[in-house]
Amino acid sequence: MTIRELELTNFRSYVTAKFELHPAVTLVVGPNASGKTNLLESLYVLASTRSFRAKDRDLIRHGEDYMRIVATSDVEYALGAAHGNVGIEKRITHDGVKRTQVAHVGHIQVTLFEPTDLLLVSGAPEGRRKYLDFILCQTDRGYLKTLQLYRRVLKHRNALLDGFEVSGGRDQIFTWDIQLAELALEIYQQRTRLLDNLNSALPHLYADIAGAAEQLELTYQPSVNGDAYGDAFLETLARNLPRDLAAGFTTIGPHREDFTISFKNSPVEAVASRGEVRTLVLSLKLAELDYAEKQTKLRPLLLLDDVFSELDRDRRGYLIERLRDHQTVITTTDADAVTREIGAGHKIIHTELNRV
Fold first, then answer.
1. Tens-place pLDDT, residues 65-93
2. What is the reported pTM?
3. Distance (Å) of CA 219 to CA 104, 127, 143, 222, 296
């Protein structure tokens, strides 16, 4: 799928703007704070229904009641958001026909490369959970539905914990525990399968980029015994009830789990140089891209947010080679430097001219 045109209304810094995208490479050029990343972000939001860097309410231009993103390919995809009675309300349409989030996500495949990707190694567990969930939601609508159900059940259980009454309270919580355990097992199984796929690709990608092979492995860290996850989860929920009551929320589950990265048989943050971390993260993002293509038989739209300034010449060259068969949107402050390296057909959008 190729996106030909992008139209924004009240999105971030844009009042109204319309852009034509090149089928190969579109460079979004301008000084800092001119709206480059906002444009790129709009494509990510349209694909996934949420931002990679902001809350929903911050996507609507300050002082406005709503925003709208429309992308035209063989289908017109549109996502609108407005201030409602209970937060931000979204509406998704395909050629004017309303779609649910589950029915929409996956139609536009995107892979994002951006400077904060380095936090996959050094950042908080929440970022790594979001990374796994984003890939799985894009490539499997069943996973998105399971994740939504898990969050709903978790919310009900937490509400019971907050207003716990001894009379009948344990029985009510146990009813939600059973549902939570079933959904948690599905999420655990999907995440670990994804990590298995990434692990099979990572060492080869790293060796191709770095010119030397290294030991690399992603290991999931479940909150209960992974060998018998479902049963162990249910048993631990019951055993941890006093602790959960004291905390006022559920203290185990996929919403608190993580994965670790080992490099040269040691924790990556302990032994990897900055250059090695950059190569590892680039390998991880390319493994994500390969996985998405294999699962969906679609070529994702690639979004590169000022990453060329973060990579040395060799890594830039390797990344450019991998971009050849994908529609790509690149933000940069230096168009000349990037165009010299990409050497392909491209279009340039100057954001300082397109903010209103």
1. 999 999 999 999 999 999 988 889 999 99
2. 0.92
3. 31, 15, 20, 10, 25
